[in-house]
Structure to design on (127 residues):
């Protein structure tokens, strides 16, 4: 008597970065339980903990590039070509290069930079 058995294989569900980030952010909410979130979405809790570590290390990808509207002005725009009027700022000290290193990006500003523009840039880069 011959017995035939077929191997039953389950296909793993592919979860994209957006879905992983969403699940991780759900676990990071105040009072959230990783086990409950995992059970609710059919994910192994250990896998969710792994995704949390990647998320906190900044390795779970970014939310994608956010595009902002840009308005191009003529070079004679007073806001961009006006000299620095901040205390301690002189024309000789306003030349140079500024490097800002972030987790996933590097911003470099070369030449003369207006203090107001730098202030807005730094405010935009804050989490």
């Amino acid at each position: 008597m011959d017995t035939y058995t077929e191997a039953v294989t389950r296909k793993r569900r592919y979860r994209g970065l957006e879905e992983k980030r969403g699940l991780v952010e759900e676990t990071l909410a105040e009072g959230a339980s990783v086990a409950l979130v995992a059970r609710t979405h059919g994910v192994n809790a250990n896998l969710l903990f792994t995704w949390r570590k990647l998320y906190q290390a900044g390795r779970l990808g970014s939310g994608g590039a956010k595009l902002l509207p840009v308005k191009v002005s003529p070079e004679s725009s007073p806001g961009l070509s006006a000299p620095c009027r901040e205390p301690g700022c002189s024309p000789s000290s306003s030349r140079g290069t500024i490097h800002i290193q972030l987790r996933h990006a590097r911003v470099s500003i070369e030449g003369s930079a207006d203090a107001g523009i730098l202030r807005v840039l730094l405010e935009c880069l804050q989490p």
